[in-house]
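Input chain follows. Return structure tokens only.
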Amino acid sequence: MTPLPNLEAKIVIVGCGISGIGAALKLIKNGFKNVRIIEATGRSGGRIRTGRLGSNIVEIGANWIHGPSQGNPVFRLACQHGLLDPADTTEENQAMDVGGHPPWVPTFLRSSGGEVEPETLAPALEVFSQVMETVQGFSSSGGGEPVASVGEFIRTELPRLAKDDWMAQGEGLWNLRMSFVNTMLKGECCINGTPTMEDLSLRACGLYQTLPGLDCTFPRGYEGLVDCLMRQLPEGTVAYNTPVCKVHWADGKHTGTHPHTLSQAHTHPVQVECASGEVFPADHVIVTVPLGYLKKHHTTLLSPPLPGHKAQSVERMGFGTNNKIFLEFAQPFWSPTTEVIYLLWEDEEHLRDTVPNIHTHWARKLFGFTVLKPTERYGHVLCGWIAGHESEYMESLPEAEVLNTVTQVLRRFTGIPSLSVCRMLRSQWFSEVYTCGSYSYPATGCSAVDIAHLAEPLPPAHTHTQPLQVLFAGEATHDSYFSTVHGALMSGWREADRLIAHHSSASASSSSSSSQLSSKL
């Protein structure tokens, strides 16, 4: 008979995002009775946030289920709760393998005004795709990479592959295709959450794995999934508006400094100190804060601080900003079949994905707009995508200035001087004090070891102090699905399973000792 775990263990989860919710649910469903979530804000969901633009539902945070197939737990939960359109749950949709790049119907606009025919840019897309496919192979090849970053590899490899063929067709065509490659680079910055592709590790970027399935959205909003999960938690599980300022743990070398630490250290080795002065004693704490927040506060968030190897991995791993700018129009200027609009700056013939002057040219970092579909549900709404330091600067500007700048860009590219926007809504993830950006990426110098370090519990396994005092979850701690909702959820489940296994093992050991004692008596 399998021994039962210690169900009375006090477990505190810091953060009520999808990883924290997932961990809490798994622990409670396995019988643990003392599980609390401490959330700094007044809401659940973390980087899942659904908003409204007029009467339209829009996703301020997480947008798609990436790889909606049976291997994706977010997809399975969404199906279980009936949150998706039936068309998105078909076996055909689940079987499609798009490699993380959905086959959207594009429209290409040029900065001199008007469209560019897709056939003109097809060779550029083909070469760019070829280079990116080569990029994905470096982490699995086991060999040394020729350069440190994806950006540097593209800058050297793509012109070599394209030069003879493109130049033979004239300098104008070369410049136009190179400007399109720049647009694709900006798009990759959004996909990867990196300020520039120069910051993305060539060796480690291929650690990210895609799942089959054509990316889909939640018709009634991503927060619907959060709501379904939250309803399964016992009332009072979450303490909202309770920022954590320090997690005190015992590494066997330092003496706790918080007044509550000494009095309760014998029964609860971890003390979670909140900004309000309230202290939550715990046997285990699962920290699920975003990597952006951890990068900014890890030296003070834990006492004693993170061990050196873990702190270095936190600092090495990248965490960037990818923002959205939603625009609503009275009438569309795009074709009914268009799913994405790419912006080509014709004077950008040199490969670069950053702007020369962030204050005057930040809008050039917009790679384009996706069209919210179906129109019957969303109306005439575009979602602009902008990453990097340009995106962070955009957040600091008055809303009216952002609207005016983006409107002027669209007037220029469409050639419609009277074009106007009815409403605008933007995300501002870099300014979110408990997030400090959007999601993680493997920066230059990173490896799989760094992600493993991020997920490593405290104290380290080789020490003799009480194990599993502080555990870590969140998308940045998943070795192959970092930057995704399903990666975040699976990391929360991973840490819950770690605690379940730990207490089951401890219970088994205790039962064995009791049996031996009984036999001696």
